[in-house]
Fold this sequence. Notes:
Number of strands: 17
Helix content: 25-40%
Order of helices and strands: HEHHEHEHEEEEHEEHEEEHHHEEHEEEH
Largest sheet: 7 strands, mixed
Mean pLDDT: 97
Structural class: alpha/beta
Bound molecules: D-malate
Radius of gyration: 21 Å
Shape: globular
Amino acid sequence: xxIVNENFALxxxxxxxxxxxxxxxxxxxxxxxxxxxxxxxxxxTQPLCPxxxxxxxxxxxxxxxxxxxxxxxxxxxxxxxxxAISQNDYRARGIDIASDEIFVSDxxxxxxxxxxxxxxxxxxxxxxxxVYPVYVDTNVMSGRAGANVSxxxxxxxxxxxxxxxxxxxxxPKSNPALIYLCFPNNPTGTVLTKSQLKPFxxxxxxxxxxxxxxxxxxxxxxxxxxxHSIFEIEGAKKCAIEFRSYSKTAGFTGIRCGYTVVxxxxxxxxxxxxxxxxxxxxxxxQCTKFNGASYIxxxxxxxxxxxEGKKQVKxxxxxxxxxxxxxxxxxxxxxxxxxxxxxxxxxxxxxxxGVSSWQLFDLLLNECHLVGTPGVGFGPxxxxxxxxxxxxxxEKTIEAVNRLKRVSI
Length: 409
Ligand code: MLT
């Protein structure tokens, strides 16, 4: 008899975005409506920038000749991309991250999910609430989350981020070993300034915890005092791992490429207090379970660091930020509590009528043919809230706001 990993039985039936896609599919089937506006999953709509297209065409040509063909690449990523990341995303900002601290991957979703492999399941965890569901689900799958008692995971401390506390989480109270932070935040679109992030770094240093910092949305930062990287905070190289993605930065949701930074000086402990370098552990994990992102996608990623690539990527980010502003101001203009959208492609709203997140979802789908993401799907503190993304087109974003103005939410 084969025994399954029964932790999977603890998970909700489907992953949040699969559940939404299924509900929208059923709605579409029953209504045949072709005017559904999708502001749900954060998937991009604008084409890749010309620099990336040209670089990937050249990379395909490389594959056509035996002299330039690439088979298995280095599991940690090609040196050309790791050097470009080190130089442009870190050293240009005065942050000392070397290329051997960078691990290229197929995206931040996989890495934030897989990072748990290098930590014992006895570690307790803290994360903001609401939160990107991958952090919770992968800790449930491994057994680290523990039992679910009255809707709360025994071994996960949730740190509420709400309109009431200005979306600034309090420091954890349970002395967690692992602390997940995502800023600019998915789903709320809010940020921490450097001085608001620093106490988390100080806390982690004091308690010998590790911060898992998801910085997938850093390209959307417009305000000066918002850190693009946790390594802008003194001491973070001793207590943090950072995840980045080209999905939102460069429209790579369908191409797949991202990276994780594991500083060489970052250590954690064995049960008897032995010290382990996490950079070596992650390298060992990746070499065993991952064969690297494709050569073509890595050439595409490299191209966004060229002068042309930088300008082109910025212009697409600005396009989405304009949509975000339209959503934010549109929601505020009809009296909704709304946040995000300034340093982020996400706008987070709260219903004035005390309806639940899923009721809001149904209402907007049925009455406006508008898809968003129910806040409660990201955690209990998201109940009554709703996330809208700025990743659709300008025209559809305008139309979405017009539709919102016609209903009472
Ligand atoms: C989201 O909508 O939260 C993201 O697109 C999900 C992801 O990046 O996997």
